[in-house]
């Protein structure tokens, strides 16, 4: 699929990953979701976390709902794990949702860390109300996308 447009957000993170991931299985395409503050506020933290964990920048209006500690939800802190330059421990490739992430361990991505991205977006003005958030692939030959391959039962 080249394009996915979600006129309403799924009620949980797995549904969001499943819908958005369809465009990225061939590493091309776009996923767009309409966000309505009154209806979708409870999903803001999950969506921002998923986008960030996949090396993409989440829109500033989503990050305005997220606290810095929310980006590390589900990660077990290992005292012996080295601390990365961004201040986080890199324990493994586990994204906190029971999978190993998208399997991409390349160090060639020029994406800001979640902390830097979050701080920059906090400085930008927030946009509330009905907003379209586009999750576009990176401008690279191998974009990072949500991993929805675990739920292929009805493809």
Features:
RNA helicase activity; globular; 5 helices; ATP binding; P-loop_NTPase; 3-stranded mixed β-sheet; EC 3.6.4.13; RNA binding; alpha+beta; 155 residues
What's the gist of this structure?
It is an enzyme of class 3 (hydrolase). InterPro entries: DEAD_box_RNA_helicases, Helicase_C-like, P-loop_NTPase. The protein is of the alpha+beta class and 155 residues long.
Explain this structure.
- The protein has one domain.
- The protein is built from five helices and three strands, in the order E-H-E-H-H-H-H-E.
- It has helices at 13-21, 37-40, 44-53, 60-63, 114-123; strands spanning 3-6, 30-35, 131-135.
- The chain has a three-stranded mixed sheet with strand order 1-2-3.
- Residues 75-79, 89-115, 125-131 and 135-141 have low confidence and may be disordered.
**Structural class, from secondary structure content?**
alpha+beta
Quote the average pLDDT.
62
**Largest β-sheet summary:** 3 strands, mixed
Specify Rg, calculated over alpha carbons: 15 Å
- Molecular shape: globular
- Strand order, largest beta sheet: 1-2-3
Number of domains: 1
Quaternary organisation of the protein chains? single chain
Binned strand content: 5-15%
Distance between the termini: 11 Å
DSSP summary: helix tally: 5
Uncertain ranges: 75-79, 89-115, 125-131, 135-141
**How many extended strands?**
3
Give the helices and strands as they follow along the chain: EHEHHHHE
Proportion of residues in helical segments:
10-25%
